[in-house]
């Protein structure tokens, strides 16, 4: 016998699709089928059933091999490591729920950690730009129901957010967008001919790293003023044409990704993109939204914004919250050798950080809390497998448009396995004992 759980939230990307159906065994112990998810979302659910999945913590031995340890031993190692460190780095937090993020922040306060999340290598620059000049944004529901001019700048949702276009931005029929994609104009700005660019009405194949110039050129074109013949590899006629397309819509939305946040200009590119959006509001309704990657990276910015006033790179080592990207960001701290222990939860810096930073992680006392075996777990001293959030435990996550959504538990975790939040609560209690508070 089986049962079907409906309205399940997908805990993979920032789209947080909320219409999945999952078939589980009657006793809730086995996950059998996943419907409505894209391939990467379905794989996240099915991976929880892997027969070779680790279910107990393990510690690296002198000879490089692993030895299984108990959760109690892992809690003790983690608490001692964090309490003994002068300035530990607590990194990740994007693939877990807000409840775990909140407990992690409390530990960070007691041990004087630097708290940083994956925004540090993706949309941190967007957050800096928002602090510079604000952001006129909206929800994905408004996009679905109102937007008829869609821009994807430096992002490739066809691969990174596979259901974004079908659920919200291009194909769905909304309240004021009854013709679906035929009533929308789609503009893609990307140096590569991506699968997203292939289905666009207009593809501006910009020269690599010239985003700031093209954004500024659009602002000039909105006003009908003179442009050079070519800007960032795009002929001026094309720029005027796109400017008119965007001005003539009823609602323009600009989605942007790491192709523009992490290319030359960084946060200044996003300043300019927000200024383009602001200018467009003189002619029509316009909004802008970052394409957030991990399913709850937005949530960690929310939790820390609420607790510390800053969304990433929060240095608590002086007993109060400091924030100075470039100084208090993970890679800068690691490369300068300023942290003496590292705790990673809900991310994979081993796969995404530069080799020089990964080498530092390898050299330091380190703990990775992570359901999978990843490049990060391979360089850490202790690996603590935990239940999958959104599959084996619920909790709050924030979609890319800052809408909080309650994820659902659909299947039991392996017997005796802790969740992120449970593990962190035990570490917090032990840290308080060690610190005598
Ligand atoms: S688009 Fe993202 S949230 Fe939706 S099913 Fe795919 S991975 Fe999951």
Describe this structure in words.
There is one protein chain. The chain has three domains: 2-47; 58-120 and 295-435, Rossmann fold (3-Layer(aba) Sandwich); 124-290, Dimethylsulfoxide Reductase, domain 2 (3-Layer(aba) Sandwich). The termini are far apart. The chain has helices spanning 39-47, 71-84, 98-111, 124-133, 140-146, 157-160, 164-169, 195-198, 211-222, 236-248, 258-261, 267-280, 297-307, 330-336, 349-352, 355-363, 375-379, 420-435; strands spanning 2-8, 20-25, 31-35, 58-60, 66-68, 88-92, 114-117, 149-153, 185-189, 202-204, 230-231, 234-235, 251-256, 285-290, 314-315, 322-323, 341-345, 366-369, 382-384, 395-398, 404-407. The chain is globular. The chain is an alpha/beta fold and 437 residues long. Helices cover 37% and strands 20% of the residues. Helix 2 (71-84) crosses helix 18 and helix 9 packs across helix 10 (236-248). Strand 15 (314-315) and strand 16 form a beta hairpin. Bound molecules: iron/sulfur cluster. Residues 10, 12-13, 15-17, 37-38, 40-41, 161-163 line the site of iron/sulfur cluster. It catalyses: N-formylmethanofuran + 2 oxidized [2Fe-2S]-[ferredoxin] + H2O = methanofuran + 2 reduced [2Fe-2S]-[ferredoxin] + CO2 + H(+). Residues 53-349 form the Molybdopterin oxidoreductase domain. InterPro entries: Formylmethanofuran_DH_bsu, Mopterin_OxRdtase, Prok_molybdopt-oxidoreductase. This is formylmethanofuran dehydrogenase subunit B. Keywords: Methanogenesis, Oxidoreductase, Selenocysteine.
């Amino acid at each position: 016998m089986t049962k079907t759980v409906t309205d399940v939230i997908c805990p993979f990307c920032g789209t947080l699709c909320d219409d999945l159906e999952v078939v589980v065994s009657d006793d809730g112990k086995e996950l059998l089928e996943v419907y409505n998810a894209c391939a990467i979302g379905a794989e996240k659910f099915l991976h929880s059933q892997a027969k070779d999945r680790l279910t107990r913590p393990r510690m690296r031995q002198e000879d490089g091999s692993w030895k299984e340890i108990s959760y109690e031993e892992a809690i003790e190692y983690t608490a001692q490591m964090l309490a003994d460190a002068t300035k530990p780095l607590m990194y990740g937090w994007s693939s877990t729920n807000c409840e775990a993020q909140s407990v992690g922040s409390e530990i960070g306060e007691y041990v004087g950690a630097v708290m940083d999340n994956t925004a540090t290598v993706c949309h941190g620059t967007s957050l800096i730009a928002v602090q510079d000049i604000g952001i006129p944004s909206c929800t994905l529901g408004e996009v679905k129901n109102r937007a008829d001019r869609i821009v994807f700048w430096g992002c490739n949702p066809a691969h990174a957010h596979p259901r974004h276009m079908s659920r919200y931005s291009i194909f769905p029929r909304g309240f004021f967008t009854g013709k679906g994609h035929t009533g929308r104009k789609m503009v893609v700005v990307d140096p590569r001919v991506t699968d997203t660019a292939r289905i666009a009405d207009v593809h501006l194949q910009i020269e690599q790293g010239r985003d700031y110039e093209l954004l500024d050129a659009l602002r000039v074109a909105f006003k009908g003023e003179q442009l050079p013949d070519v800007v960032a590899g795009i002929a001026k006629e094309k720029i005027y044409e796109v400017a008119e397309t965007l001005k003539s819509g009823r609602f323009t939305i600009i989605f942007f990704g790491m192709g523009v946040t992490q290319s030359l200009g960084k946060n200044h590119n996003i300043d300019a993109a927000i200024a383009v959006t602001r200018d467009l509001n003189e002619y029509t309704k316009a909004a802008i939204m970052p394409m957030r990657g991990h399913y709850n990276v937005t949530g960690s910015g929310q939790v820390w914004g609420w607790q510390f006033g800053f969304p990433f790179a929060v240095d608590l080592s002086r007993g109060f919250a400091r924030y100075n990207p470039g100084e208090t960001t993970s890679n800068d701290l690691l490369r300068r050798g300023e942290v003496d222990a590292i705790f990673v939860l809900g991310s994979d810096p081993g796969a995404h950080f530069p080799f020089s930073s990964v080498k530092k992680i390898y050299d330091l006392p380190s703990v990775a809390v992570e359901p999978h075996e990843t490049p990060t777990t391979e360089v850490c001293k202790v690996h603590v497998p935990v239940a999958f959030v959104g599959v084996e435990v619920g909790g709050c996550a924030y979609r890319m448009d800052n809408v909080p959504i309650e994820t659902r538990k659909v299947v039991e975790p392996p017997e005796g396995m802790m969740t992120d939040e449970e593990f962190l609560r035990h570490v917090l209690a032990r840290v308080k004992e060690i610190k005598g508070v």
